[in-house]
Design a protein that fits this description.
The complex is a heterodimer of chains A (117) and B (114).
Chain A: E1 4-5, E2 10-14, E3 19-25, E4 32-38, E5 45-51, E6 56-59, E7 62-67, E8 72-77, E9 86-93, E10 106-107, E11 111-116
Parallel strand pairs in A: 2-11
Antiparallel strand pairs in A: 1-3, 3-8, 4-5, 4-9, 6-7, 7-8, 9-10, 9-11
Chain B: E1 4-7, E2 10-13, E3 18-25, E4 31-37, E5 44-50, E6 53-57, E7 64-70, E8 73-79, E9 87-94, E10 104-105, E11 109-113
Parallel strand pairs in B: 2-11
Antiparallel strand pairs in B: 1-3, 3-8, 4-5, 4-9, 5-6, 7-8, 9-10, 9-11
The chains are: A mainly beta (117), B mainly beta (114).
Chain lengths: 117, 114
């Protein structure tokens, strides 16, 4: 059973517009959320994170929003640039109902973002 | 120099072979991880090492055997694999164990089991 879901396998936006990538989770014990970005033939690289005590975290063009009641987070990229074209993974941590460890990041399947010039 | 390197980048092996994947980190980190990414599935954590001690074994079959001889090197020894083990194997490291520390990933080894 997938605990972190990225329901859109792909997203295409025009350069300069906003990209919104969505992520839903089911485990109420998650308390830390991250976004990773992956280019082809490279490993994922950390982009931005948010703790469950916040509902927004901003870093330059990237903003992550967290809605705990809806168990939903989103990554906003504005303005989008062609270099942002990559696969974006949502990940969460914080243990599970059985008292799991905080070593484990649970990832979504990823969303391929294409930013068209 | 790239922070986390993995060799080989591609590997094709038969089900009766024995091979090893190598990971090296040049970041002075204390924790290292193996992840598996199968087609159309999320990244799955396999093993976590902290200061060369295994701290997490995520219900991985014994045909995968990790080894961490020092905090800079991590191996994944493979034997009698199955075709369903074909996947991208990613190594990562972080300053210490725990997900609050940013994980730095290597480029991965694309494994095909025939």
């Amino acid at each position: 059973d997938q605990q972190v879901k990225q329901n859109s396998p792909s997203l295409s936006v025009q350069e300069g517009r906003i990209s919104i990538l969505n992520c839903d989770y089911t485990n109420s014990m998650f308390d830390y959320f991250l976004w990773y970005k992956k280019y082809p033939a490279e490993g994922p690289t950390f982009l931005i994170s948010i703790s469950s005590i916040k509902d927004k975290n901003e870093d330059g063009r990237f903003t992550v929003f967290l809605n705990k009641s809806a168990k939903h987070l989103s990554l906003h990229i504005v303005p989008s640039q062609p270099g942002d074209s990559a696969v974006y993974f949502c990940a969460a941590s914080g243990g599970d109902d059985s008292g799991g460890s905080n070593y484990k990041l649970t990832f979504g399947k990823g969303t391929l973002l294409t930013v068209n010039p | 120099e790239t922070g986390v390197t993995q060799t080989p980048r591609h590997l094709v092996m038969g089900m009766t072979n024995k091979k090893s994947l190598k990971c090296e980190q040049h970041l002075g980190h204390n924790a290292m991880y193996w992840y598996k990414q199968s087609a159309k599935k999320p990244l799955e954590l396999m093993f976590v090492y902290s200061l060369e001690e295994r701290v997490e074994n995520n219900s991985v079959p014994s045909r995968f055997s990790p080894e961490c001889p020092n905090s800079s090197h991590l191996f994944l020894h493979l034997h009698t694999l199955q075709p369903e083990d074909s996947a991208l194997y990613l190594c990562a490291s972080s300053q210490d164990e725990g997900t609050l520390y940013e994980q730095y990933f290597g480029p991965g080894t694309r494994l095909t089991v025939t």
